[in-house]
Design goal:
The complex is a heterodimer of chains A (225) and B (193). Chain A is of the alpha+beta class and 225 residues long. In chain A, the strands form two sheets. Chain A has a four-stranded antiparallel β-sheet with strand order 3-2-5-6, with no helix packed on it. A two-stranded antiparallel sheet of chain A has the order 1-4. Chain A starts with 7 loop residues before the first helix and ends with a strand. Chain A is flat and about 80 Å long. In chain A, 44% of the residues lie in helices and 15% in strands. With 193 residues, chain B is mainly α. The longest helix of chain B is centred in the middle third of the chain and has 30 residues. Chain B is flat and about 55 Å long. The chains are: A alpha+beta (225), B mainly alpha (193). Chains A and B meet through helix 1, helix 3, helix 4, strand 3 and helix 8 of A and helix 1, helix 2, helix 3, helix 4 and helix 5 of B.
Amino acid sequence: MATHDPRHEQLMEALLTGEHLRPAAEIAACPICSELLRELQAATASLESAGAEQRSVLTQASELRGVAGEDRVAELVRQGLAEINPPRRGRWRWHCSWLVLAAALLLAVLLGPWRREPAPDRLLNSSGYRPTARNVDDLADRGFQWPGSPGETFVLYLYDPTDNLEPWDSVECSNNKWIPSATYVQGMRAHRADWNWVVGTVRATAAGGLPTIERSDTFEFWFSP
Amino acid sequence: MTPEPFDPKSELAFVRAVLARQEAAIAKFEQRIRCVPRMLSALNGRRGRPLSEHDLADLVQDTVLIVLRKLDQFAAWAPLEAWIYRLCLLEFLNAIRRRGRERRRTIERVDEPATAPAASAGGHEHDDVHQALDRLGGVEAEAIRMKHFDALTFEEIGNRLGMPGNTAKTRYYRGLAKLAKVLQTYQSRQEHA
């Protein structure tokens, strides 16, 4: 029986992504990897089957006409849009009596010049390094720079701030810089609309190496209010 | 569903125009969102019609409102209809679960043996997959969906996610490893139940 080697991970990835058609001998002989392979193949089979069902439902749905509730859809859309996003003028008329205005002015006088509090600038990291961009919207312009040796790579793990046990995504970056695409930033915001920040943990690794943690640090990335 | 080839930018612009309440966009949206009742009806048919026409009409109403409320979260990684399908499926599953619970309560009240039909109370073989993907979230779940649900190549997945094809492969593989763990948790939970 062969012993497990972290390099098997690359072979597994090649197999599961279709680069290799058959499992390499090392994988078949490794008890950990052969077990993992069975699990991953089962998951792939379930996904294939769910995907086939989805495509079939979409095709079937595109051919259906006159089903329950279809006649009311247009009306529901109008109603729904009015509920979620009432026209400004309508809202203004509804809410803005001189009493509301007076109360707001009084509150402003009591609380001092009103301004939106910027996101707290807590320093989570131990090195004291302040990255070029901490606001998610600025990431696509300026990128996230990590001070390291030239050629060093790093992996940025992104965590849910409320449950940072398992990262929900990780990004590999070479030359110490990560510039996410605008689509990625948009996706970050869209997928985690209920968070106003995410935690990123950087783990520097030797160039091209497996994730041996040589140095690590943690940062917060804020969404604009 | 969408006759034109999928273009993320124009799809996103369309959704923004709907949210900005532009009349032409709303009129087109009203046509496209007709997929909600059709998808729910197709799902109901496949699961042995656990929901009556009346329940289905109620579900259509709730789902359309949920789609509208979540519309600002649409990231255009897939056509609008594919995104709507996920919401329809999750709402449909919630509805049949609720119905199953109601039936069990009714049966307990009249002191009859619990013999609710599987189609109305139980799950479906793909439910776990959709729930696990929803739980996984992020780019990894999107890469998996694009591979298995939209049948895209890694190059195409990379283009949609704004990353090289090889990075898309890595994301897909990592996501798959996490998903397999989640699916195993669900499976062992079912075995112990």
